[in-house]
Every structure is written in structure tokens, then in C-alpha cells.
């Protein structure tokens, strides 16, 4: 498991640039892929399907916390831990993150432009 130091190795600058330039549909696809990639890394699995359930893949409370922290670090979007249970697949969590990103960007235009300087 990757805990503790994995957050230090995360740089979301490029991801945030891509999100700022993307259409809503592209943003959702980017975030879905980000969720899958992060989950696969945390669970040491080679691939994660869009509709695979986090808990059925072996996500525990500790790894759910790690996934949430990694995603927040990469996206600069606040994600409550309960979102992992409410949106239990990469597809549903990616959709949630895209909506949360859009809401944060509309409330604070600096979010959409973060990492672009």
C-alpha cells in the first residue's frame, strides 16, 4: 500500500490545465480516467473498469482516505470521504468530480485557471 508518502509525489498541474481547457464531457472523461488510475495504483491492480465497485475491488477505509486525498491534491477540489460510498465506481465518482470542479470553478474563477501560470 502506498499511504503517507504517496500524496507528496502527486503533481496535478498538468491535470488542472487539462481540466480548465476541457469541455464538460472531456472533463468527466479525464476525471474518470484519473479515478481509475489512482485506484489502480492504490490497490496495486493493473486495470480498473469504469463500472467496477470500489469496495468489491478491495478498497478499505484507509485506502478510501488515500484515494480521496490523492484526488483532492490532483484536482484542488474538496471531496468529502463519503463521496466514495455515494459514488462507488470510477464512472459515478468521475461524474461527481466533474460537477464539483465546475461548481468550484464558477464560484472561484481561479480554480479553472489554477496551475496555468
Automatic annotation (TrEMBL):
<keyword id="KW-0596">Phosphopantetheine</keyword>
<dbReference type="GO" id="GO:0031177">
    <property type="term" value="F:phosphopantetheine binding"/>
</dbReference>
<feature type="domain" description="Carrier">
    <location>
        <begin position="26"/>
        <end position="101"/>
    </location>
</feature>
<dbReference type="InterPro" id="IPR036736">
    <property type="entry name" value="ACP-like_sf"/>
</dbReference>
<dbReference type="Pfam" id="PF00550">
    <property type="entry name" value="PP-binding"/>
</dbReference>
<protein>
    <submittedName>
        <fullName>Acyl carrier protein</fullName>
    </submittedName>
</protein>
<dbReference type="InterPro" id="IPR020806">
    <property type="entry name" value="PKS_PP-bd"/>
</dbReference>
<feature type="region of interest" description="Disordered">
    <location>
        <begin position="1"/>
        <end position="21"/>
    </location>
</feature>
<dbReference type="InterPro" id="IPR009081">
    <property type="entry name" value="PP-bd_ACP"/>
</dbReference>
<keyword id="KW-0597">Phosphoprotein</keyword>
<dbReference type="GO" id="GO:0017000">
    <property type="term" value="P:antibiotic biosynthetic process"/>
</dbReference>
